[in-house]
Amino acid sequence: MVRDGIVVVYRTKEGELVSHKVISIEKGALRTKGDANLKADPIAVTAEMLVGTVFCVFHSQEAPEGIAFSSNGMPLPTAICKRF
């Protein structure tokens, strides 16, 4: 269930993947904002744009090798959006 404070991943009309925090839900669309941004994103995220939610973040120089597993042993779908 998506609610305020959840980080979602969505695809812009240009095809870019963005992960931002939900700050409100208005008329069935999500208002989002990046943590380092001063203002909310100019376009609301619709259901068609939504890719998923962020479950956890790995902080490392390289992506984890192999499959990431949840605490119940189930494999987690993972994606690398950007490396810095």
Structure explained in plain terms:
- This protein has no helices and six strands.
- With 84 residues, it is an all-beta fold.
- The strands form two sheets. It has a four-stranded antiparallel β-sheet, with no helix packed on it. A two-stranded antiparallel ribbon has the order 5-6.
- Strand 5 and strand 6 (75-76) form a beta hairpin.
What layout of secondary structure does this protein have?
Elements: E1 7-11, E2 17-26, E3 29-33, E4 50-53, E5 68-69, E6 75-76
Antiparallel strand pairs: 1-2, 1-4, 2-3, 5-6
* Helix percentage: under 10%
* Alpha-beta content class: mainly beta
Mean residue pLDDT: 82
Number of strands: 6
Silhouette: globular
Query: Beta-strand level of the residues, as a percent range?
Result: 25-35%
Largest sheet: 4 strands, antiparallel
Strand order across the biggest sheet? 3-2-1-4
Give the helix tally: 0
Distance between the termini: 30 Å
Q: If you compute it from the alpha carbons, what radius of gyration comes out, rounded to the nearest whole angstrom?
A: 14 Å
Please trace the helix and strand order, writing H or E for each element: EEEEEE
Low-confidence stretches: none
List its traits.
single chain; 84 residues; mainly beta; two-stranded antiparallel sheet; 0% helix
